[in-house]
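re: that chain from earlier
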Amino acid sequence: MATKALFNSVVNWIIKQRMDQIQNFIAHPIETQKGVLFSQLYMAENTAYGRKYSFKDIATYRDFKNQVPIVSYEDFEPYIERARQGEKDVIWPGSIRYFAKSSGTTNAKSKFIPITDASLEDCHYKAGKDLISIYANNHPENKLFTHKNLRLGGSAEMYENFNTKYGDLSAILIDNLPFWVEITTVPSKKTSLMSEWETKLQAIVSEVKHQDVGSITGVPSWMLVLLQRVLAETGKGSISELWPTLEVFFHGGISFKPYREQYRQVIGKDINYYEIYNASEGFFGIQDQYGSDEMLLMLDYGIFYEFIPMEDFGSSDPRVLMLEDVEKGKNYALVISTNGGLWRYLIGDTVVFTALEPFRIRVSGRTKHYINAFGEELMIDNVENAISRACEATGAAVSDYTGAPVYMKDGESGAHEWIFEFSRIPDGQLKFNQIFDETLKNINSDYEAKRYHNITLKEPIIHTARPNLFYDWMASRGKLGGQNKVPRLSNDREYIEPLLKMN
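^ sequence. v structure.
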């Protein structure tokens, strides 16, 4: 008892110190970000990349913009490959030991994202501690430290090449976790490091069904699969029967909107939900307010942020803004320079600012995951809101979906074609379709203009998926579990055609 009391007092002291630091960057956001930029430039000025772009000569943000180019993964890959083959001082001082193999949601090829010691400690692990600090600060009555956290990561298979290692980000994080984390989390490191998804899933179920779980962490889609397997294995009616102390789900990776009702049913009671915004490239945002769908942009993780207005994205000379110049309610492509050795790197995500004091964001989509075949500029955020409204009105629940354009031909208008997999069928499919379409019109004026009198766009074509269609499709692509995500929107028919065939 005394040991537990001591542990709690130490944790509370750490939480207070960190909350003071968070309040400091909230109060001084621009100064914090400039400090991050120039400390990073100083660290990397003698790297190959720093010498090429004269980091030593950069005295202002304007110099940085003028001297250092904005890059995609394909532009930056030659430098990453040099570092991956063991060359020192390429994009960050010294050798980089780890590379996170990305699932490549924006490109068919795999990406290898550098993970430096600095990005591990000052970004990824720091964010994990902050998540607990923020939650505990908001819920002082919490029991997080007296129960286990159930974590669900991706494939933890690690490969060694050129004296460097690569694998899923979760593999790298688990491989480097401090010992005390292992004491407080399930499943065991051995089980977490299993690679084959179905075998791993069964091993996790067997291990965690006897544990006292108070919190869960993972991607909503895959965690839901796990919880449903746990219920099937134990014969319980709800997760709260098995784990009555469960109080919070820390989730990220995809939007939680389509899953909220399903979690309420599976868990069987109301718990807390806290969203995070992380990727192989870094950890960017944490929900800091209870019951909110906004995330505080974390400004002191060794990441310098820039933003390209989406109306400029793809142009030869886009406007690029610092944090102090962004506007509320506008979509921006995210550009990052990090302590992982990425410089003015287009991560592929779009964000919208929901508040400017402090800076809070929502992830609105992907720069390559949208539908704009007819000038409608349909983003994932639009679609999630329309689905939510249609489900609310018809008692439905959508577990997975994807959409794509139907191109104009033979003088006919185009359309959007959708496949929805329902965990609860709508009370009236036609009503669901109409509300989905009308909501898109209400929240996206470009879509509304193209739908006017069906001149450019006809009403959406909506298919109901058979049970487990998306799971089977992801399995056929070798993309089960972890950071793998169902592509929600595409400006071509690459994803929808095989799904239609399998349906």
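The two ends are 57 Å apart (CA to CA).
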